[in-house]
Amino acid sequence: MSSPRKLAALADLYVNDAFGTAHRAHACTEGVTKYLKPAVAGFLMQKELDYLVGAVANPKKPFAAIVGGSKVSSKISVIESLLEKVDILILGGGMIFTFYKAQGYSVGSSLVEKDKLELATTLLEKAKTKGVVPASAIPDGWMGLDVGPDSIKLFSETMDTTQTVIWNGPMGVFEFEKFAAGTDVSPITLL
């Protein structure tokens, strides 16, 4: 694995045009910026940011957001902000099990941030006016790793009613083909 300094030695400047990975603190995205000047966002990144800001500031209604990822803690501000703006909020990925556990569902060995259960309960109360999708019990010893066909169908049908959709984060452990269906599905055109 290369260090940021070694990677930076190969270039004179840094332009990041990869919106989808810009938030990651990796050697090739964040690390090299300490050694290369200028280090800037590219035109594609600016275009994506402009679309995102426009979609959130002035969305065509109904406005939906899909938020996935592994941890509630990394998405708190996104979820709280979107709850105030969207008509439909779909949560998925590993973080959903913290919400399920907060509702008293059995989540087996699935990822749960125990220190975020109270926050999840608070966010669920705020979301009640938007509607909450029920979950099935996950048996002890089993682990939720992706959304299932029923959720994909429900998400797709819900998205068919929307005019604006933003999506942040994976619905499953997409690095493994068996658990990538919910993330790879893309039944809708975003923005």
Automatic annotation (TrEMBL):
Gene3D superfamilies: Phosphoglycerate kinase, N-terminal domain (3.40.50.1260). GO terms for cellular component: cytosol. One of its GO terms (biological process) is glycolytic process. It catalyses: (2R)-3-phosphoglycerate + ATP = (2R)-3-phospho-glyceroyl phosphate + ADP. The keyword Nucleotide-binding applies. One of its GO terms (molecular function) is phosphoglycerate kinase activity. Its cofactor is Mg(2+). Keywords: ATP-binding, Kinase, Magnesium, Nucleotide-binding, Transferase. Its EC number is 2.7.2.3. Belongs to the phosphoglycerate kinase family. Monomer. This is Phosphoglycerate kinase. It comes from Rhynchospora pubera.
